[in-house]
Amino acid sequence: MVLKRAAALAALFLFGFVAPVAAQDVTLTSRDGAIELSGMLLGFDGEFYRLETEFGELTVDSSGVLCEGPACPNLQDYVAELSVSGSTTMGAVLMPALVEGFAQRAGYDAVREPVDDTRFRYLLTNTETGKLAARFHFRVTTTDEGFADLLANEADIVMALREIRPGERQRAREAGMGDMTGLHRSRVLALDAVVPVVAPGNPVRSISPLDLARVFSGQVTNWQDLGGVDAPISLHLPQAATGLSQAVADQVMKPVRLEITDNVVRHPLGTALSAAVADDPFAIGIASYAEVGNAVPLVLTGACGFALEAGRRTIKTEDYPLTAPMFLYLPARRLPQIAREFLAFTRSPTAQVVIRRAGFVDQSPEEVPIDMQGNRFANAISTAGPEVPLEELQRMVRTLDGMSRLTTSFRFEAGSIRLDAQSRSNVQQLARAMEVGTYDARRILFVGFSDGDGPSAANRNIALRRADAVRKAITEAAQSEDTKRVTLDVDAFGEALPMACDDSAWGRQANRRVEVWVR
């Protein structure tokens, strides 16, 4: 009897599996011999088979069937396979450090084996039994290549320095991988930032985002126009297909409707970019915060006098506007148990230490007392106008007095009430912290802020609605009984506490946010 889709698989999920090295035909037979199903074996995760059959792609619990065919896995000595592809920035240092940290924590010996210029794998062996437990395969190229491998069913996880593009999202959905922007389909592993850099001998130490875009569009070609010497500017960027280069296009160029000039030296590795800039006194580049090396980062400035410098805390809070989250994208697939354990480890406190030691910005929330907010409050006072009366500033100080700001912030997609990708990950992170009792018997205040474009009363109302939207998202993500142990409130102060100048799109985006304060 042929197994039918509806009756056959009590274990039919929106899950997938690690693809075997070469998919081949197999036959699955129920243990009583009454049901038989043939098809191409697409994967096995140690518990479930995934087959391509005449009825479509089906998932079968291995405990209820016998497998016949040369592709059938060895159930006694099963070795899990996990394929990870994408960003070199993530794959060169960060992911290997996490794999090795996980192995040490979980009782495995991890041995790294090179395959070719872009590929390597980790062999994880159980220290007690001496048996090989898993092979983690890595291909480190670009974010574009990572998504291409995923869509070709050649990768289980994508390492990305940008959000998934609409076209990639649509193709993934059509391939049965689910909505890659949905819950649990992506997570922020760590934080990075897009940082303009120059040589140590270059006298220029700051630049506005507009001038940065004009430089890389070819409109500004001489350092003299930026307060430097009379010399031509040489331009350096990452390889075009990398997530970091695409973040430059999205965050630096797109807000002012400019395109990157062709007169740019491209580098496949961020470390090579920074080294080239450091050796050339007339060069400017845009690098990853974690790969600045011997180059000197430039401070972002605005006409209103604000200055924003990339640092661990300003990147974590997203106060530095050119933040580049480091994403892991996972299709709607069931991964082997050891792979699921590894992903759980990446969110642990131990993993956050590993991330920091690797030179990246971790996700652990930090509490910044109000008495360390002096510069921000000074900026608020200096930029206050008729639309922000003294009474509102006083109300803000009274409200936040005695509280601490979490480094977890929330922002929304442009022109939308939908949280951006990093903020959606922050929702899950804060909800988990509440579930384990981190904020029991404490008060959490979600505080909305806006840009200064438009009437101040309307801006405050918008900021208040956004703060309430964040509170609702946290409440839904956490168990209801967990939220009862914590007081969750909302407030808003509109444009009263700007982070950047409102004269640019990036500045207005930086000012539109929801902060989290705790007592």
UniProtKB/TrEMBL annotation:
CDD domains: OmpA_C-like. Coiled coil: none annotated. One of its GO terms (cellular component) is membrane. InterPro entries: OmpA-like, OmpA-like_sf, PBP_domain, Phosphate_ABC_transporter. Keywords: Membrane, Signal. It holds the Pfam family OmpA. Residues 1-23 form the signal peptide. This is Cell envelope biogenesis protein OmpA.
